[in-house]
Amino acid sequence: xxxxxxxxxxxxxxxxxxxxxxxxxxxxxTVAAGTCQEARVKVADERPDLILLDWMLPDTxxxxxxxxxxxxxxxxELPIIMLTARAMEDDKVRGLDSGVDDYVTKPFGxxxxxxxxxxxxxxxxxxxxxxxxELGGLIINVASHRVLANGKPVDxxxxxxxxxxxxxxxxxxxxxxxxxxxxxxxxxxxxxxxTVDVHILRLRKALEKHGFDRYVQTVRGAxxxxxxxxxx
Length: 232
Known about the structure:
Blueprint: E1 5-9, H1 13-25, E2 29-33, H2 36-46, E3 50-54, H3 62-71, E4 80-84, H4 89-97, E5 102-105, H5 110-124, E6 132-135, E7 138-141, E8 146-149, E9 152-153, H6 158-169, H7 177-185, H8 194-208, E10 216-219, E11 223-226
Parallel strand pairs: 1-2, 1-3, 3-4, 4-5
Antiparallel strand pairs: 6-7, 7-8, 8-9, 10-11
Helix pairs in contact: 6-7, 6-8
């Protein structure tokens, strides 16, 4: 069972429901969008692990959405599989040139699609989806979204989890509030920078129970950093 999230961007309701059903059966968490505009919101809000993207959408083509995601630093590495009825070789080349990781033509079987998803996730997440991030006694299990502090579970909300994961994969670097908003919330989300302070406080409170709140450090006039060494 996996807790990875897949965003299905498809305007054909019958196809979308079929894909969602099979992804749910395979153990994935799913979210859906019917337009590129809606997809951008879902990417920012849900931070999916992979996108299944239809080429022909009512507002903007999936090709354009894929290119824009590749231009954004926050979503540049987000895996994308193109779903389309366009099966000509030139179409496939154009799709792959837009930066997508794989290209699946309609109609397709559920087993094939799941296999393609597994293959892309293996390629784009080196070491496998069960990797753990460990730093200074804290462990994040990426597959289960569980956090352990010296072996004991840490209760975190989804935003605090994403923040801690970002910090632990980028230790000892100072990030401003605006940079944290981009990396944790996504560049398309419009919230006040002070929102970062609220979630920093919540993260520290959750870690304080285990004696690890000192790792989340305030750097006056600059922002925040995560470090297992003493705060100067």
